[in-house]
Specification:
about 220 residues; alpha/beta; TIM Barrel; binds pyridoxal-5'-phosphate
Length: about 220
């Protein structure tokens, strides 16, 4: 099957309210170009260096999303153009995004990355860390950072109940934060969850944005 037919399949099966982020990490610009030519405009990358190189080889109207863990000292390189950072998970990173957003006269949209999986990983706020972050409220003094929702990754497992439970948790955190902090902010509306192995479940559990690599581009 070709990239075109994989994209056609997703177009037919993913509900229209769900944004498809094509995760192009580790695939060369020529291959990304095929997906672009098939009509996709939103692409996700997880490494700053790779993103910078690829961006220059591809059309200007691509919306680039950053989906990997982001080091503070690299924010500067993506701040001029990035459309959405999915991986805001600490205060100091936010302060750096604020600084670089200001330097570029841009408001940078970000998702609060939450650690919802049972697996041990370093990335993402725990639910309580995120509650404290929101309660402390320093984000309100960051006019160049716009928090537009949440992002999370489920455990890598065949256990459907487990995955569903984790997506459900992310959705309920989204609702909690929406009610508590963003009730009148229409921009706070994204739930980024679902990858190749679990996106149908994520959509059933309320995803608004799926991040798909393998199903579009094949194995990395
Ligand atoms: C690589 C990656 C994806 C895409 O994974 P696939 O299983 O290839 O669809 C999605 N989200 C994040 C954060 C990733 O790092």
């Amino acid at each position: 099957m070709s990239i075109q037919s994989h994209i056609a399949f997703l177009r037919e099966t993913v509900p229209s309210g769900v944004t498809l982020v094509a995760v192009s990490k580790f695939h060369p610009a020529e291959v990304v170009r095929e997906a672009y030519d098939a009509g996709l405009r939103v692409f996700g990358e997880s490494r700053v260096q790779e993103l910078i190189v690829k961006k220059d080889q591809l059309p200007e109207d691509i919306e680039w999303h950053f989906i990997g863990s982001l080091q503070r000292n690299k924010v500067k390189q993506i701040a001029p153009f990035i459309s959405l950072i999915h991986s805001l998970d600490n205060e100091r990173l936010m302060q750096e995004i604020e600084k670089q957003g200001a330097a570029n006269s841009r408001i940078i949209s970000c998702l609060l990355q939450l650690h919802i999986a049972e697996e041990d990983t370093k990335s993402g706020f725990s639910p309580d860390e995120c509650r404290s972050f929101l309660r402390e409220g320093n984000w309100k003094a960051c006019p160049h950072v716009r928090i537009v929702g949440v992002m999370g990754m489920a455990t890598y497992t065949d256990n459907e109940r487990q995955v569903r439970k984790e997506f459900h948790l992310l959705k309920s955190l989204f609702e909690e934060f929406k009610t508590g902090y963003f009730p009148d902010d229409p921009a706070f509306r994204e739930i980024s969850m679902g990858m190749t192995g679990d996106y149908p479940l994520a959509i059933e559990e309320g995803s608004t944005m799926i991040r798909i690599g393998t199903l579009i581009f094949g194995d990395r």
